[in-house]
Amino acid sequence: MRVVVNGLGEMGASLALAIKNSRDDAEIIGVDRNLDALNKAKKIDLVVDTSSDLKSVVADADVIILATPIRAIIATLHDLLDLTLKPGVLIMDTGSTKDQVMQAAQPLIKKGIAFVGGHAMAGTQRAGIDAVDGHLYDQVPYFLVSDDQDAVYRAKELLNGIGVHIIRVEAQQHDLMMAYLSDLPHVVAATLVNSTTQTLTDYPELPNYAAGGFKDTTRIGAADPQMWTDILMTNHDATLESLESFQSSLNRVIEALKANDATTIYDFFDHSKQLRQKF
Amino acid sequence: MRVVVNGLGEMGASLALAIKNSRDDAEIIGVDRNLDALNKAKKIDLVVDTSSDLKSVVADADVIILATPIRAIIATLHDLLDLTLKPGVLIMDTGSTKDQVMQAAQPLIKKGIAFVGGHAMAGTQRAGIDAVDGHLYDQVPYFLVSDDQDAVYRAKELLNGIGVHIIRVEAQQHDLMMAYLSDLPHVVAATLVNSTTQTLTDYPELPNYAAGGFKDTTRIGAADPQMWTDILMTNHDATLESLESFQSSLNRVIEALKANDATTIYDFFDHSKQLRQKF
């Protein structure tokens, strides 16, 4: 089974390695614009072949996994329309928002090509093929989005071997859940960091006094700016909904503090304490 | 040296233990409303004596450390005015906001009593004497607030033995730094948790999909509601300033997202990534 993986970053390379390790018949073909990544992939024996051009290797692929940043996934889904693909090819992606990806995949799906949107709740602060980890996907939730039962069956068959927990969802449900669990926390963490700008100018020693609370809450404020800009732009409506919900909730706390309303502030913290225990 | 510690919670009991371990002449007298805490303090040999009533043990104290919740510290500072204290007694507190404490201490200071406000950047999610840890203060920043050089000298002498890094600050500078490093992150974490309320009702499986980003960012959303209500109410102005600064910053992101302005969103994340590396 020839598996073309387009994008040998942390997610793509780790998925390729997990698939390679889980089945004897898997031959990985690695595609990346970055030649260093391709050389590294050869060096660690991840791939049987590499290319810097997806077009040149798709014709005999049994599976094509799109693991680039999300805007490139969307562009590639359009490019694939004009290429000759092997009959029965299964195309999947790893993008962290799904509604726009599924819309971009519609023309391929209408041509009868099997496409399954995918998103694993995995990944670290590291990036690139140097972060490759064959166990990155162990036991993680892995969302699949598709109305095509046969395609989902084949995707499950491929992914079951790597030990993920598969969950089928609708694209919009997926994106709303991710807005609250991931996009909103990233925006909030970055806003927290940025709101120290003036105080940091006034008191340059401020970082010496940051304890675990600040550090944990802002850790993802150091995430990759381009990746998170792309995620926000491609999960636009759900993220905006979550941001506005957060903003209303915050405004209520600010009003309560202005009014010296300790009861409302207590209830606010108490509700959070109860709810946080579910996570 | 008789050291009365009022409030045998995590901070007070751990400070008492660190002082006891650091000098042979220290005799700790533990005061708490909670009889279980007093029994535990005896059982672990932390104290030479205990009382549930501060008034009954202050007369021969060389040092009095107020380690209760902050509103109780303020009330106690008023109560102490009417009691007979040993000449030369040093009074300290451990409250996490300092401006209101220093104001409450003014009448004592005017009577010539040595008072030094204190706040250590230590503490865990645990609470009560069961969380006692003689190493809780190792290498942590410890703020001291006082204009009384002699009192500060004596407080330093007591605290140097427990291995803290002493920093002298003005009360208002301390409180503003804490607003950004601690109070604002706590409000934001709790707001993040609370803003999932509706989504959690719609999709009860939501917590299964929370990854490290959400968990880290919201960890302190499970903090003690009463303690944080007190901190917000006693660090009112600085917290409000930090909340309004955060709110403005967040509004700019929301407007940029509404306008599909990817450049502003990229700059926002990029600024945060740069700034976060200082912490």
UniProtKB/TrEMBL annotation, chains A, B:
Enzyme class: oxidoreductase
Keyword list, A-Z: Amino-acid biosynthesis, Aromatic amino acid biosynthesis, NAD, Oxidoreductase, Tyrosine biosynthesis
Listed GO biological process terms: tyrosine biosynthetic process
Residue ranges annotated for the Prephenate/arogenate dehydrogenase domain, each copy included: 1-279
Pathway: Amino-acid biosynthesis; L-tyrosine biosynthesis; (4-hydroxyphenyl)pyruvate from prephenate (NAD(+) route): step 1/1
PROSITE patterns associated with the record: PDH_ADH
Annotated Pfam families: PDH_C, PDH_N
GO molecular function: NAD+ binding; prephenate dehydrogenase (NAD+) activity; prephenate dehydrogenase (NADP+) activity
InterPro entries found in the cross-reference section: 6-PGluconate_DH-like_C_sf (IPR008927), NAD(P)-bd_dom_sf (IPR036291), PDH_C (IPR046825), PDH_N (IPR046826), Preph/Arog_dehydrog (IPR050812), Prephen_DH (IPR003099)
EC number(s) recorded for this UniProt protein: 1.3.1.12
Similarity-based family: Belongs to the prephenate/arogenate dehydrogenase family.
Name of the molecule in the record: Prephenate dehydrogenase
Organism: Paucilactobacillus suebicus DSM 5007 = KCTC 3549
Native organism taxonomy: Bacteria, Bacillati, Bacillota, Bacilli, Lactobacillales
